[in-house]
Amino acid sequence: MARILAYTSPARGHLFPLVPILDELNYRGHTIILRTLASQVDLSRAHGFDAAPIDSRIETMPHDDYKARTARGGLQRSVSMFSARAEYDGSDLQQAIAETSPDAVIVDVNCWGAVTAAEAWGGPWATFCPYPLAVTSRDAPPFGPGLPPARGPLGRIRDRALKPLFVGTFERMLLSPLNEIRKRSGLGPVSSADGLFGRPPLLLYLTAEPFEYPRSDWPPNIAMVGPCAWDPPAEPPAWLTKIERPIVLVTTSSEFQNDGRLIATALDALAKENVHLIATLPSQDAASFRSSAHASLLPFLPHGLVLDRAVCAITHGGMGATQKALLHGVPVCAVPFGRDQLEVARRVEVAGAGTRLPASRLSPDRLRMKVREAMTCVEGARKVSEGFASAGGPIAAATAVEMRLLGHPRS
Q: Of 3.40.50.2000, 3.40.640.10, 3.90.226.10, 2.40.50.140, which CATH number belongs to 238-388?
């Protein structure tokens, strides 16, 4: 059996979908070594992993793209932040490799330095991506603004015309700092985002059709395995079992992005509806919002406990929360604030699994209307849930690791 070293960025939204994959590999007899955010080390050890924290300096670098006034500015801040973290996560992974002598390495795609270190190491390695992947395709619109898929000749002309604007801008900002990181590790440059994502022998893409747009030209190193959703074990709180009204879940980002007004607007929008609103605010203070007899605001609650009874999820467009709701067959009203959330929200709409409301248009009346409309999309949410299940989840991911990195299936 193999020794597998996994490395994540300092975000629970990236660790949690990796946990069931590592659980499955551990179940198959492999030794799991994990480097992740300090607050989750004890939980990881409880799973039987040899866990330790990533370099503490990485966790002091917040994701501050929400301060930007434009999407371009937000991307620039994100690139600067990931580049700054790379100064430490690359050497951090190198040290972990030297200390643990793994047979294979799995790295969070957001850890730019660690991804480069894994490639430079020379052994079997993979990345995992829990958000929409910016890989170009003749069958999908240019990544970034959340465009709907093209229809007919005019749509294809649109995509060709806009690709240099969106993909070109993305690559101009991304490639220079990434190639500098690669140069320091003795690796040659990449000339495109597609070239970058094509470097790992295996890229575990944590989604599946029909949520992701069907494509005829997926790169051969990409394995779509579904969302691999996971929550820390928890008993349902007593107050949850006493709620009689239909439940609407509201989520905000686990990495602060100033999306608290989604909670405030939802409280106003649904105040007179026959629902109970449950909102999770992992990066904000619940005490800053007004209380309500038919609303519960918490810093954290495993979403699975709520989704078993929810009739709709209002999400910030984060891939993790959105896919988790759809995995449970719960339709979504996605309100994207930035980052990859425009793409996630559009996929919700295109899949017929819910509705989309840009944050720039967020108001109580509009949100109420979109939530009511989303509640009618149960069939679309069910089809997405079935697609996720068919992709295989953690079992498919573990098999891909064994076949493509270790060269053998489970015995």
A: 3.40.50.2000
